[in-house]
Amino acid sequence: DVQLVESGGDLVQPGGSLRLSCAASGFIFSSYEMNWVRQAPGRGLEWLSHISTSGSAVNYADSVRDRFTISRDNAKKSAYLQMNSLRAEDTAMYYCATTKDGPFGMWGQGTMVTVSS
Amino acid sequence: EIVLTQSPVTLSLSPGERATLSCWASQSISYYLAWYQQKPGQAPRLLVYDASNRATGIPARFSGSGSGTDFTLTISSLEPEDFAVYYCQQRSKWPLTFGGGTKVEI
After folding, report:
1. Per the count of CB atoms within 10 A, which of A20, A27, B10, B53 is most buried?
2. Burial class of A57 by CB neighbour count within 10 A (0 to 12, 13 to 18, 19+)
3. What DSSP line would sit under chain B, residue for residue?
């Protein structure tokens, strides 16, 4: 199947860290850019980060710059989001999305991150 | 950053009616605008990209138009499955941004 599957979401205490993974299957992962997007409960979509096909270029939203790090491993067909210094306001569903079939043309099903003591 | 403003926030219509959703950008984004549909408990789905190009598998009743700062998504005749939240998004400049969404309800 052609799909993206996120994992790694969990309940974490404020100030903690978490690493999200996004595993791709059914297409040439290395040919497409990757993004992470989140959605707080009952709220809209917020773009977080982008990584180029080779991983040489990255971009971040101001809200997560210096706390989150995006990376990818084309051999493992996976992208990652390392999240440090987590805050309550980081509580959200986290989606990965790729540029296959158009900008943000394919999305995963999401993984939930809850930041709470 | 580029702010996208969607209007209206909520659109109350009936099946068969025409829906017109608007998205305004705080500065020119050329044609680099996309529209997404999201239903409860689901990931967003790309409908239209680069202002007017329908994504793969999207029905012809969905159409996008506009350039610069003013954009429109039109659903020509609402089907029951079209009742959802719609977001616009720009990819003209970093950081990428989404609009706040328009909920199309019965």
Report:
1. A20
2. exposed
3. ---EEEE-SEEE--TT--EEEEEEESS--TT-EEEEEE-TTS--EEEEETTTEEPTT--TTEEEEEETTEEEEEESS--GGG-SEEEEEE-SSSSPEE---EEEE-
Contact A107 B87 (CB under 8 A): no
How far is it, in rounded angstroms, from Cα A42 to Cα B66?
29
Tokens representing B55 are 């994504």
Whether residue A102 is predicted with pLDDT greater than 90 in this model: the reply is no
Instruction: Please report, for residues A5, A86, A97, B91, the alpha-carbon distance to residue A109 in angstroms, rounded to integers and kept in the order given.
Output: 7, 22, 10, 22
Distance from CA of B44 to the nearest CA of A (A): 7
SS3 state of residue A89:
helix
pLDDT digits (tens, 9 = 90+) for A18-38: 999 999 999 999 999 999 999
Choose the closest CB to A46 out of B43, B94, B98.
Answer: B98
- Mean pLDDT (whole number) for B87-99: 97
User: Quick one: chain A helix, strand, coil %, rounded to 5?
Assistant: 5, 50, 45
Structure tokens at B15: 């099946």
C-alpha span between A95 and A92 (Å, rounded) = 10
